[in-house]
Amino acid sequence: MDDIPLNKLNTQIEHWFQRFCDRNIAFGRAEVRERLREAKRAIKGSGAGSGDGAGTGGVSSGVGGGASASNGAGACIGASTGAGSSASADSGAGSGAGADSGAGSGDGAGKGGACSCVGSLPAAWRDEGEFSSLLELKRAHTLRVVAYAGDIASSLNLPDEDICLSRIIGFLHDIGRFPQLRKHGTFSDSGGENHGKLGVMTMCDEGIDKWFPSSDFEIISTSIIYHNVHVLPDIKDARALTHAKIIRDADKLDILDFITENIGENFYNIEQNAIPGDFDDHLIQDILDHKNLSIKAIKTRADRILFDLSLIFDVYFPLSYEIIKRNSYAEKIVSPYIGQHPAISDIISSTIRYIDERCVQSQ
Ligand SMILES: [Fe+2]
To answer: Distance, CA 301 to ligand 1 centroid (Å)?
Structure first.
């Protein structure tokens, strides 16, 4: 089969992505309805309402929802197994734009009816509307990441084919979120499956690996597998390393957009957001040292704020820093908390200095 030029594949992937979203939302909604029906049947059957039969029906029954074994392409297998060895925690890069919500947030049985079976389901499985809006958030997030990735690649004066490849990786980087929500009812990588790994499996299930020369598919897989790890591992291939960095930057820029546009709201909808607590002195020091925090270190809402800020310290490219500076992300994230810890003002000035230095280095 002749190789299709990457600019054509860019368009092909864009169309595929929109269909993939539509399909997963439709199948997922049907699964939510089925889960609710099962939950209600279980409570009727038991008469007690303690039923645990909910949530077993229809998981991943639709096309594109499963994370079954890959179909044999070397990159699929290699990338999938590679993900298993990337033991680092989520960077949180996947946590923005509505991610990580849903799991165990426990806001009642919702519209599904007041029975404990329904209440025991993850929030995303109790309400079709909630389910689709979470996936629509991912669709919108993805489209913005595609734009950022293309802009970063252009700013690096990469060849046209690499600009196209960066956009393709943008379209594909979060497709694992779709089976993740359908299978586990959550966007939490720790509570379900890692969405980077699921993304590569999904590409193989969808036959997307066959669309690309194997060298390009290796780069796509590597970039997706590592887009959400805490620390990017040593990637020997220079082109793969560049693309892995581009997608990490593009993803973070949209997360920072989302975080700063929704300051003060419990948009994470996860436990840590609700737990009050003082700013932790060790984490404060890590921030002053410009360290990228691990999500594993996050225990309270205050920790989460520092974690959000620390995304800035894991960004690679000049254009990304210019966008961070232009949008005053650091100030927006932390300034509401001036007075809650003596170091907050220092954190702001030190982070601004850090950003300025990286902008200057780029000139
Ligand atoms: Fe993302």
So the answer is: 22
